[in-house]
Amino acid sequence: MADTPTSLWRAALRPRMLGLLVLLLAAAAVCARLGVWQLDRAEIRGAASAAREAERVVTAPPEPLADLLAPGQTFAGDLVARKAVVTGTYDDGATLLVTGREHDGRTDGYLVLTPLRVATADGPAVLPVVRGWSPTPDVPAAPAGDVEVVGWLQVGEEAGAPLVDGRTDAISSAQLLATWGGPIWTGYLVVQTSDPADPAVATGLEGLDPPRRAGSGLNVQNLAYAAQWWIFGLFAAGLWWRLVRDEAAGRPPLPGEAPPPDDADRARPADVPSADVDEPAAVRER
After folding, report:
1. Where does this protein have compositionally biased stretches of type Pro residues (predicted)?
2. pLDDT in tens, 161-207
3. Is 0.70 surpassed by the pTM of this model?
4. Which of 91, 119, 142, 258 is the most core-located residue (most Cβ within 10 A)?
């Protein structure tokens, strides 16, 4: 027989079911709190891990760019934030300003993007270099002559709006190839240091933090524990509802418990002979 709202309501209000509800709600509340605690742990451990990773990236020794990535080569994900060193000559006249980038909470400045002409084993190539962030569009010229640049690699971006008046909203190797020529690297370099030093630093050009690698936020293990505790809490609530449905459907009586009246009526045999039914005459004459 299908459960009706009335039968479910009556079953839910039975003292035994109300007691179970209190217990299971308490269990669900504990599970929810433990899930929140694990989420907090995921944030704390994730932040600590990110801080250690950032320190490692800053202090890591640089590797020759030629050993990490060649012009036109596909940029692998594990190259993000790898520290590289390269020597070349800035083409200051082709400098671009990248708009719409936040730095220390500010969005009213520009990334200064200058091509570095590099001599490779296969001939000259172009490396996009982000020299820093400037609060104004008036940026002093890049160092002249050969310069050794140390910085962090970052993957190139999708193409943005067309370049207008030396400004762009994306660091896209495809767009830069059309503007600067090639061959060109598919990523770009975020400057940490240069030799000789960039004169723009003395007039307000600010250095940038290393690029962040994917997955440097929440701690995955603690996040999984939090999800498990929340699932347990939902299971406790679902278990009570399942017990209510079983109660409404008519559960079997427990040992020593009298069956419900309707069950007792169904259990009585229908063909039990009455005690005062007249016996046959032959039996009475005996």
Report:
1. 252-261
2. 888 888 999 999 999 999 999 899 999 999 999 999 888 887 788 98
3. no
4. 142
